[in-house]
Amino acid sequence: MACDQLATKTYRTLTNFHAKGGRDSGLRIYCLSWSDVDDDLGGTHWYLRDGEDGPWIDLEIETAAHSESVPYSVGRHRSFMTGYDCPSNRTKRILEELGLLEVRA
């Protein structure tokens, strides 16, 4: 499967976290539940932060102007379903296609 087919918006965040070194990168994972912002909204928004006070890194938005509508501070520090140290199988495939992970035998 081509890398662009695998790189959905959320997987951009997952892949970036692991490509930068995972837990050792100093990046923190955040998830915003839109229902925390408005009871009529649903879904989640995943993004990163560089350290405790660094800039927000949001690979789900198309342009910087879109970031104005995201209340980043409402999000919560989370881990991915596979934890911090092990990328999901889909993320591994993306990293392999990008040449950032050794291809499994």
Furnish the topology, listing elements before pairings.
Layout: H1 3-6, H2 9-19, E1 27-33, E2 44-50, E3 56-57, E4 76-77, H3 89-97
Antiparallel strand pairs: 1-2, 1-4, 2-3
Helix pairs in contact: 2-3
Describe this entry's structure for a reader:
By secondary structure, the chain is an alpha+beta fold. 23% of the residues lie in helices and 17% in strands. The chain is built from three helices and four strands; from the N terminus they run ααββββα. The protein has a four-stranded antiparallel sheet with strand order 3-2-1-4, with helices on one face. Strand 2 and strand 3 (56-57) form a beta hairpin. The longest helix has 11 residues, at 9-19. It is globular, with a radius of gyration of 14 Å.
Tag the structure with descriptive keywords:
globular, 3 helices, disordered N terminus, 4 strands, alpha+beta, 23% helix, four-stranded antiparallel beta sheet, 105 residues
Write a brief caption for the model.
The chain is globular, with a radius of gyration of 14 Å. 23% of the residues lie in helices and 17% in strands. With 105 residues, the protein is α+β, with helices and mostly antiparallel strands.
